[in-house]
Amino acid sequence: MATLIPALNQCLPRMQSGEKRLARRLEEKLEDDYLLWYDVAIGQTGRHPDFIILHPRRGILVLEVKDWKRDTIHRIDKNSVTLLTHGGPKEVANPFEQARLYAQDIASLLQKDACLVLPEGPQRGRLVLPWSYGVVFSNLTRSQFDEAQLHEVIPAERVICKDEITESVDPEAFQQRLWGMFKWVPSRPLTLPQIDRIRWHIFPELRIGGAQLGLFEQPDAEATLPDLIRVMDLQQEQLARSLGEGHRVIHGVAGSGKTMILGYRCLQLARVLQRPILVLCYNRALTDWLEAYLAARGISRQQVNVSTFHAWCREQLVTFHAGLPPQGPSNSEFFEQLVQRVILAADRGLIPRGQYGAVLIDEGHDFEPAWLKLVAQMVAPETNSLLVLYDDAQSINRRGRFSFRSVGIQAQGRTTILRLNYRNTSEILQFAYHYAKDVLTPEDADEDGVPLLLPQSAGRHGPPPQVIALPNLSVELQYITGHLQQLRSEGLRWSDMAVLYRTVDVGDAAIHQLRKSGIPSQWVGTRPPQSALRPTEDSVKVITFHSSKGLEFPVIAIPGIGRPSRHMKEAKEEARLLYVAMTRAVDRLVLTGSPEALRVTLPSQRIPA
Fold first, then answer.
1. Could you write out the DSSP letters of every residue in 210-258?
2. Which residue in 140, 246, 327, 530 has its CB near the most CB atoms, within 10 A?
């Protein structure tokens, strides 16, 4: 069965009857290695072909579908068709010419990639795959097509008719109709990397930078093409394009692309919803990242409000004059009272429910049950659009498990599980998991069918993590700054690097050492001299373990491993925190500490005396 993107049940409401029939035939009659896209824009053109078909042994085919009947076609030439309608004659574009232009758009995008053209021989410079185009007339039989002499304008071999897309049609005959539209057959099939490159060019919204910060680089057709490209995998793309109405939960391991899917979903919803959209996170740095990501794509704060949960609570109390709580002796008490006031105000009707066309929650694993129950009530009933991203293994701010049903989230049968970790190399993921395996033990699925997941590597490799024993923090930071300078000389950007820390004294020492060494740096946080995350700034980011959640960088350095602090939690929680910090690293991970501290924290490693 072929893969249709978006999923058929999401396409049906906007499909014409002929498109529905063709989509079902394509899914049923084609094998698993066929990829199909319905009504998805090509590149930056804004053009939406009805169907794009990709097969590794055949090539790319663009099809336009028309439900016209024989007696409605009054006149047709190469460029246009005059149809007889109830409102009088109507002139429209010739669908064959439309399909040709769409196919040429695709070919032009692919032609610029040296990895997708033949490097030598008589066909040098030609695409490694053929491309073609055609028309499906879902209400014209082959005999009607011939009788009307439409073949004088549209080649008969580039047309599929009503009697050729019936449920009983022979799969082989159906496929022959498709591939009879091509003039040649490639001598070898496309490789998986070539298929990824094709998707990378045709659908730039699927592109993934070297890390999340690379997502701020707008697609540029003239930019130098990378040797190694990264795109959403097919499961991620299918999920991102197919998220429909109602409550949805994406339960994925660290690095499985949850935040990327959320960002894509925001862009989709912002184009179609008239009501504002709310995105909530636990982590301020992730909020800054998402705000910048959406702003870079022309989405205003009036369309999508991105906020931490507690900042949103404060905004609600101020906006609806429900009164802020008094500043207590501790932030935790203040925040607790802040939430309780919003809940009470919503119950009394002071704060209205159903304010947003959609609510999307990142880091749902760090939200308390009462928070989720409150936020679920903020979705407008007419859209009922709620998306929760979740990973128990990264839960470092909330304890205990609960069911989504108990907080009003209808997750049963609406949960997607992402098990593959695409962020980290196998070496980094193995190292992090081996360290934290005692706190990542899978539990039985809860009543929502959502288990605690163990990450599976996508198979990307790189250098093993470095564990460096040094006598004190000052020497550790000197080593790290030297290492970062070396990587900069090898071509990495400063913004590809981050220093993560557990305690504020380590963060303070790190930012001073970086600046002393002349390395542009930003201390990310909420209190001066810290600042909000500036993702587009080419600087090394210095971030706490907590604030790094949801972020990623090609290079992560973690100094001061095992340093004691009065703020330290129980051992298992500390292990979760360090696991989260380690799994922020895309390609390289460096950990430093005193020999004694490293031996206690990483007992499985060989630490020099």
1. SSGGGGGS---TTSPPPSS-EE--HHHHHHHHH--SSEEEEEE-TTSSH
2. 140
